[in-house]
Amino acid sequence: MLPISLLYFALTLYFLPYLCYANTELTVLMDIKASLDPDNRQLMSWTESGDPCSGLFIGVACNEQLKVANITLPGRGLTGKVPGSIAGLKRLSGLYLHYNSLTGEIPKEISGLTELSELYLNVNNLTGEIPAKIGNMTSLKVVELSNNQLTGHIPRTLGGLAMLQRLDLSFNRLGGPIPASIAKLSQLKFLDVQNNTLSGFVPTGKPTSNKPYVQIPVNCIRHHIRLHYALAWTSHIT
Ligand SMILES: *[C@@H]1O[C@H](CO)[C@@H](O)[C@H](O)[C@H]1NC(C)=O
Ligand SMILES: *[C@@H]1O[C@H](CO)[C@@H](O)[C@H](O)[C@H]1NC(C)=O
Ligand SMILES: *[C@@H]1O[C@H](CO)[C@@H](O)[C@H](O)[C@H]1NC(C)=O
Ligand SMILES: *[C@@H]1O[C@H](CO)[C@@H](O)[C@H](O)[C@H]1NC(C)=O
């Protein structure tokens, strides 16, 4: 017969992952809070003994499986860095942290959020480069990074975001060319890259009857490129 202690051990091992899993998202939220609201002024309702899906955690919405689905905290006076641990919120579909005073880099771990559909980090003080691994976030429909201090090149990997509809990188310090891969984004309806120090042309892909070939030199338009990709998009520009 199996000794009781061994049975107990086996049972513990069996249930341990579930116990841990239940607490993981709360741990991540507390980590986010420690980073973005160290003085506990905005996120007082996020407590270690609370339930993120109770509806009491300000800005947190859960899905039917009781996983955090949206974090909505625009204009809340948040500071500090977005922690890489945010990737632990595996079911996150919307991250709305615009109009705050976030600093530091966009953590490359964010690429683990493969169900994220809307990323709003615009109007903050984010620095560093846009992580190339953003190309792994294949659910992304909206990427709003305008009005930060992002540097480096626009990553070529953005061209892999097949569902992307809106890409706003305006008012940053991005340099180099707009990668040709952008032309692959067949769903893209809005692209704004104004007020950076980009060079070259706006890539438009191969000409078709709907999309005649145009070459728009980034420099000619200077800091003002606002393209509305649509069937008739060329008429907007020319
Ligand atoms: C998350 O936000 C999206 C977009 O606003 C919305 O459609 C969805 O219903 C939200 N999900 C939850 C669980 O609140
Ligand atoms: C960014 O930092 C600058 C300089 O510290 C500050 O003046 C500005 O208000 C900040 N912007 C945001 C959105 O926090
Ligand atoms: C993430 O993207 C990199 C290249 O950018 C690729 O090598 C890697 O396989 C991708 N990972 C997943 C899980 O898709
Ligand atoms: C572009 O940004 C710079 C620096 O932030 C600013 O001085 C300039 O006025 C902006 N240009 C336009 C056209 O908005």
From TrEMBL:
Residues 23-63 form the Leucine-rich repeat-containing N-terminal plant-type domain. InterPro entries: Leu-rich_rpt, LRR_dom_sf, LRR_N_plant-typ. Keywords: Leucine-rich repeat, Repeat, Signal. Residues 1-22 form the signal peptide. Gene3D superfamilies: Ribonuclease Inhibitor (3.80.10.10). It holds the Pfam family LRR_8. It comes from the Eukaryota. Coiled coil: none annotated. This is Leucine-rich repeat-containing N-terminal plant-type domain-containing protein. It comes from Ambrosia artemisiifolia (Common ragweed).
